[in-house]
Amino acid sequence: MNRIKKAHAVSANFRFLKIIPRNWDWVLLIVLAIGIRLFASTPAAVELYYSQGVYPFFSGILRSLLNWLPLSLGDLLYGLLAFVGIGKAVTMINRLSKGNLHREYRLAVFRKLCFIGLTVYVVFNISWGLNYNRLGIGSQLALQPTVVNRAELDSLAVGLLYQANRYSIQIDTAAIVQFKNKAKLFKSAATEVNYASFRYPFLKCRIGAVKPSLYSYLGNYFGIQGYYNPFTGEGQVNTTIPVFLQPFVATHEIAHQLGYAKESEANFVGFLVCKEASDPLFSYAAYLSMYLYAQAILYQVDSTRANQLRSQCGAQVQSDIQTLNSFYQQYQTPIGEFIMQGYDYFLRANEQPQGKHSYSQVLRWLMAWVRKNGWEAL
Questions:
Q1: Range of the domain at 166
Q2: What's the average model confidence in pLDDT over 222-229?
Q3: What is the Cα–Cα distance from 248 to 254, expressed in whole angstroms?
Q4: In 248, 260, 288, 327, which residue has its Cα 20 to 30 A from 272's Cα atom?
Q5: What pTM was estimated for this model as a whole?
């Protein structure tokens, strides 16, 4: 009798092992995931062997294969995934209502979710995500971004606004209208990046597969101006946002394609491309975007000074800021804030502890650039 009880006890203690599959595909995924984490812990190795080695070759091929498609394959795949996910959720709710969620079914669902999660993690990192762990633009330009103090922030805001005002008067209506043509926008963005690669050779790369997002209107509710699809290598631009921002957004997404995963670095690369662009609309888009980051942070530190500086905006800059504010006010919803909170967690999980505020961390890069090259380089 005691032996039987002990046998049952042992069986109960090891029953949890049933949730662990014994397939080789699981072993392979787990080994790859551990290997990725170990490799990612050495940024110098990631920079040399992945960001400057495997990734440019792989991503260049991927963009070449998908560049001819007029639509974003990544958007289509995400849409299909959402459709399948909703269907699975409905099935789960239906089974729950009928009391059919037995233990074996729950374990099967748990195993499947773990397998999918591991697969996505491995594919995401191999296809692009390891770029979060590279040395990046700081190593390439010998920059050390540090905290921007109050006086530096004020000077940055003044300098950026000066440039935004200067370029705003160089743009006529015809120049803005031409960029409503999406093909023209993306071709010009690629041209400006190629032009910038003569000054910054590390930007030299096969560029392509920058496309309008199929979910642009939906993205407005979440404040999304563009995004990069790490699984297809496509850069999506929200072409419903005001035209005067789109050139900078396009170069930001190209920066992601080039392997600059962190948002602050992609912003800084976009700024370097646009600041000396042949088309003044690119320069204006970059300086206006950077000024808005500086203005927002300055307002948190000293609202009186921020308002004083705001009054120095030129007529076109004032008009465009008002247009931008009005544009986003019509899309504000609680759901949008909820989605952005999820995106905040994603950024924090990928080497960006500032979360959704990582974009404004570009000011640290700008200030490091100024400290090295002087205010005239801004």
A1: 138-377
A2: 88
A3: 10
A4: 327
A5: 0.86
